Amino acid sequence: MMKIEIIFKNQPEEQDYMEALMESIKADGHSCEPSNGTIFRAGDMRDDTDMLIAWSLNGPGKYCKEACRWQRKPLFVIELGYFDPYQRRRDYKSISLLPNGEGIHNNSCGFVEQMEMTAERLKDVFGVKVHMRKAKPIKGKVVILGQVPGDTQLDGLDIEKWCDERKEQLESLGMDVTYRPHPQTLNERPADWKPLSEEIEDAELVVGWNSTSLVECIIKGIPFYCGDKNSQYRSMSCALDNPVARLVKVRKQFLANLAWCNYSTEEIRKGMMWEHMLRLLNLQQEKENGKRSA
Predict the structure, then answer these.
(1) Who wins on pLDDT, 87 or 46?
(2) Cα(229)–Cα(129) distance, rounded to whole angstroms?
(3) Domains in the chain, ordered, with CATH?
(4) By C-alpha distance, which of 63, 31, 25, 35 is closest to 50?
């Protein structure tokens, strides 16, 4: 039996998901106790806790990372789903495993490319069809994706400086570069603002640090460069000077695996999310055992 501490604020959305998760964990015979995310700090983690589960790294999760780093314990983060930006079942939330508190949500669960999950969930639950790229891109057109400065997903990176450097680099290669700021950084959207899917449709290359929007490129077969070497999207990334998308079967398997990291409240209550969390923990253990034997 594991002793699990689950950290969240008493807000309706967080409470519904986390209470459903606690129910499923207890039903599996484990101890699972809540802690108030409003006042939780790294030193508050109980000594006998085997695992922490936190809602969002932008909230109490940042202290959970510190606590798990100190005590070398696994941390799971629950947050917005990977497919949310594309209006596919927005009631779903995603999980990421940060071994020993290391990594960033939506980046470093580190096991997506190692799994071989079936594709039924990708198709039947999220309605995602993986495309071959049919539209002919405009030669030299590049779209750079901005992110919200200071977001924990950036892990301290100056995203505006990074985007400026990539823009300068690509323009020196003769590329026609468009910078796409994150909507949350704008006071008012321009009159000619397009949906992201339209913005990148005819791009030869899309560039981002570790934006969740890169999932759209994986779905549509649009070549993209992911700057974060620790991101799970990195395995699907191309080089800046060689915009070529991965094969359909490779992208489909990656997305199928990703779909199994997203669950609704009803599915969480049934234990589906907890079952997958255990699967990720087993992969982490196999990875650690492999390092020791090497």
Answers:
(1) 46
(2) 27
(3) 3-109+262-286 (3.40.50), 141-257 (3.40.50)
(4) 31
